Amino acid sequence: MFRTKTCGELSIANVGETVTLAGWVQTVRKFGAITFVDLRDRYGITQLLFGEELNKDLEANPLGREFVLQATGTVTERSSKNKNIPTGEIEITLSSFMILNKSEVPPFKIEDDTDGGDDLRMKYRFLDLRRNPVKKNLELRYAVGRSTRNYLHENNFMDIETPFLIKSTPEGARDFVVPSRMNPGQFYALPQSPQTFKQLLMVSGYDRYYQIVKCFRDEDLRADRQPEFTQIDCEMCFVEQEDILNMFEGLVKRIFKDVKNIDYTEVVERMTWEEAMWQFGNDKPDIRFGMKLCNLKFPSHTFTTKESIADLITGEFGMFNDAETVIAIAVPGCAEYTRKQTDELAEWVKRPQIGMKGLVFIKCNADGTYKSSVDKFYTEDKLKAIADAAGAKAGDLVLILAGAEEKTRKATSDLRMELGKRLGLRKDNDFKLLWVLDFPLFEFALEDQDGGGAGRWVARHHPFTSPKPSDIDTMINNSPKVEDLEKYLEHPYANIKANAYDMVLNGNEIGGGSIRIFQKELQQKMFAALGMNEEEQQHKFGFLLGAFEYGAPPHGGLAFGFDRLCSILGGSESIRDFIAFPKNNSGRDVMIDAPSAIDAKQFDELQIKLDLK
Amino acid sequence: MFRTKTCGELSIANVGETVTLAGWVQTVRKFGAITFVDLRDRYGITQLLFGEELNKDLEANPLGREFVLQATGTVTERSSKNKNIPTGEIEITLSSFMILNKSEVPPFKIEDDTDGGDDLRMKYRFLDLRRNPVKKNLELRYAVGRSTRNYLHENNFMDIETPFLIKSTPEGARDFVVPSRMNPGQFYALPQSPQTFKQLLMVSGYDRYYQIVKCFRDEDLRADRQPEFTQIDCEMCFVEQEDILNMFEGLVKRIFKDVKNIDYTEVVERMTWEEAMWQFGNDKPDIRFGMKLCNLKFPSHTFTTKESIADLITGEFGMFNDAETVIAIAVPGCAEYTRKQTDELAEWVKRPQIGMKGLVFIKCNADGTYKSSVDKFYTEDKLKAIADAAGAKAGDLVLILAGAEEKTRKATSDLRMELGKRLGLRKDNDFKLLWVLDFPLFEFALEDQDGGGAGRWVARHHPFTSPKPSDIDTMINNSPKVEDLEKYLEHPYANIKANAYDMVLNGNEIGGGSIRIFQKELQQKMFAALGMNEEEQQHKFGFLLGAFEYGAPPHGGLAFGFDRLCSILGGSESIRDFIAFPKNNSGRDVMIDAPSAIDAKQFDELQIKLDLK
């Protein structure tokens, strides 16, 4: 070893010991004939003291930032102590040192607040990784992984590796494919998830499976998506939904405890997908704060169990009258917003990302009066009634959006989240878990991207998700064909609910899963509903249908997005900060410069060629 | 849950309890009006008793092998106990049951000794995985992984994920490549190992890294190779070879303890590569038994430190006189082999896989006489001298091979291993570890497969392995150019030794690694020695050379072949048995039928087309 101790472990208890450290030069400070150097390694920083004698050697061999140094000396009590670091009470009075490697001046500062821009730090990722905030992120990631493995091990889960070179069965997202040299003209695909393999392991009786595993999706990268990402992938036999929910809220609570030292003792809330959409306009609501949606008006085919309160807004206001949907939220304590502030909010909802035409507000003044942007259309009594319906108290500001159902609901959700952030209601260290249940089994794709037709049912989760037992008959006894595209919501399939569940943390979906179909006939019915004929079913999933003939047990599972989970626990919005070597928005690794051209010999061996447009 | 207990946990202590089990029907045995069923799950087998009442239901709903059953009843003491299984003292007297799923008759028996052939079991891998021996293998694999993670965690290693979509830099083996849709005409490569990334992590100061990670090599598959395989990949900072050897023999000892309950207290033996070749003819010797090679004759350019004993075989025997190399081994206790037996051994070494011209034997009879197949060429005194040199005692059989150096050495090694096996000297549960050290840094490739020249130096381990410090000057001060191809062994590069080490277990290389180059100039010299010009160096490894400019620390590491390690610990020669979903020798997954054709749309999006010959 080049060292006897690390830079993070020496304290006043070690005074008098002779030690050797090795690490990187963080700072060099000269004071006349002596020099102080902060030496850094993964474990900490220790101050080195070069006395007069060694200082002469230093002049002959000057140290620069990030030089790699080996230093031997005696642990000494410092005269001026640094209480901010664990080693701050001591320094090493050196007897010798050796420069193990030199360093160019780094292109940005290796400090918590760096002067390097994103692009520069990505190109020199090996230097960015030296910075303390990035290191803390990767340490947190490791801790989350370790906590996960321990919990699952204690609960009888087995880590079983599934293959990476599998078969291309494009359903939802695009596959990355890999040409096979040994089977010319044929391709492997990289897995989008180990879904079918983990189901086969259940058929094989492995009972409880998990894997922390890389998955791949060749999608156009929106912000904060990566072509390769990591899942905590789990599956269990002989379980019902309730068992899965209990097992995996237990996992997240354990991670909270191990990684953040948080005792999450509250009951994890549960909400149906319909309630989430109704109350929050969103299937992954952030329940750390209220501001629930007040559905003043909504189309009759949605939320069929809810009663209309549209009479509250009857009147002459065209925007409300023309709108399919009108939704209000009560923003606490903001009645005194200025004109400038409400104008800014109106501009905010008109941005292209939100796309609303305008914003109506009602100020619930402290004196009990109401003032709104629609005073000429509604009496103060009416305004009060609307504000009451929205749950507004004196001092609150009611904001109302109106327009087409889907857009308006999403916009209100976005506005709610934005205000939650501005008002400091979404605190980094406040964690609230939520299960969202009873998702729709199908979505109707009006524009079929394959150009094969005008519309078809697609699986909202994936084709292996089972319908609610009470909805199985509906699925079996009805043809998936939609006669009138305009009225697809009236088709029986639109109301079939899935045995599917998402785990939501602070407004982010961190995991999701379902109870699976385990009967061959139902699985075939499902494939058929998605427009797959028998030949296609056999070609793509023959192995799974085959496996279901030999004693498939009831089973279910879920997968957590590992990168996302880590970033939320780390209080960051970006998953990239929690990946050692991430790719940019074009799917490039700018450090190693990949992807790149390959040799003629490689094309030749693979028997493929380019066909550039 | 479909069950309250598993099929492996009930004992006499549970008698009287009402339980529900779920699992697979292993056997059905009818005795008049009652029926016994063995129900199986991952945890064990429990006997179910269907009384007269339920037997009638059974007749209406007959059970078959591998049916999935849920059964409720009372734990009862058995009259005839089965001492072979943990649950053998009890049975469940059923009150109700439900068939959860039916099963076709499986194409082979789900038993320890199955009647299914390899191909059938691969196609129905999900059924083969139900068999106990296969399940035990995967359980062992999980235990090895878990033990590894625990040990490395306790020693401050961090699991850090490295990317799977990287850059193609074909050096040794062929890369699998992945066309990039977002960067048309460019390709990612799947990693052959995370080598350069783990080195970057050391440059980044992560100090101790590990990963249990999939790696990919597109090679023609010899027996027991897989296109995707798993490594335990490790790297450490500020270490010398000795530190690595200690750390990782500690890991293997820990695995022995955790997984096999073996206390491996012996000192792990060490041997130079040269000694391994000299004594065993092999760089991964099985040291569980002796039968060391007696080098009667060898070419002067090999083993330059060894003294010749060729005078022992001087005489008229042409085969020895013409041979470059003559090697003997003493086979213990086999002096009484019959003519038939020695003939069979002679045939064995003449097989094409071994390729020798013949086999000479000397029987060291119990009465002190010697009898050989070359009696007419050598006196009994001469025979005795040869036998003594080979370490033979009375009762032993000396076998001698002669021919070209490389072939003869390998053949003798193969013969030694074969006899070790036949004589029962290679016992499954006898584990002997060995470090092989000081490998040559280079090999000379006489036929350059790229057709670019008549010969060139290739890295024996990989281009990042450092030479022994004492050999660095030799490397820096000599041109790699070999003027006379016949005499490449006389080139100074042929004698440069590497700071590289292999861990050998029972004659199998289970891991290997090296101390790495961490100086930019030496790395460039290494690349140049391998025939890479500066442009190529920059294109392929510019990021690494760049990283070495910013304070790279001394570092080194190794990787274990996880599949192989598991198979040896499991007492099997085949890694396939220890992989949940392996591929066959053509790189095919016959269960899912991959690789396969892809859609025109996929070609179109990737901007590639087939170019079949």
List the helices and strands and how they pair.
The structure is a homodimer of 613-residue chains.
Chain A: E1 18-31, E2 34-41, E3 44-50, H1 52-60, E4 68-77, E5 90-101, H2 118-123, H3 125-128, H4 132-154, E6 158-159, E7 177-179, E8 187-189, H5 195-203, E9 208-216, E10 228-237, H6 241-260, E11 269-272, H7 273-280, E12 294-297, H8 318-322, E13 325-331, H9 339-350, E14 360-364, E15 370-372, H10 380-389, E16 397-403, H11 405-422, E17 433-437, E18 442-445, E19 456-459, H12 472-477, E20 500-505, E21 508-515, H13 520-529, H14 534-547, E22 555-561, H15 562-569, H16 600-606, E23 608-610
Parallel strand pairs in A: 3-5, 6-9, 11-17
Antiparallel strand pairs in A: 1-2, 1-4, 2-3, 4-5, 7-8, 9-10, 10-22, 12-13, 13-16, 14-15, 14-16, 17-20, 18-19, 20-21, 21-22
Helix pairs in contact in A: 4-6, 4-15, 13-14
The order of strands across the largest sheet of chain A is 6-9-10-22-21-20-17-11
State the secondary-structure class of chain A.
Answer: alpha+beta
Number of strands of chain A: 23
Please compute the radius of gyration of chain A using only Cα atoms. Answer: 30 Å
N- and C-termini, Cα separation of chain A: 56 Å
* Average pLDDT reading of chain A: 94
Largest sheet of chain A: 8 strands, mixed
Counting copies of identical and different chains, the oligomeric state is homodimer
Shape label of chain A: globular
Proportion of strand residues of chain A: 15-25%
Number of helices of chain A: 16
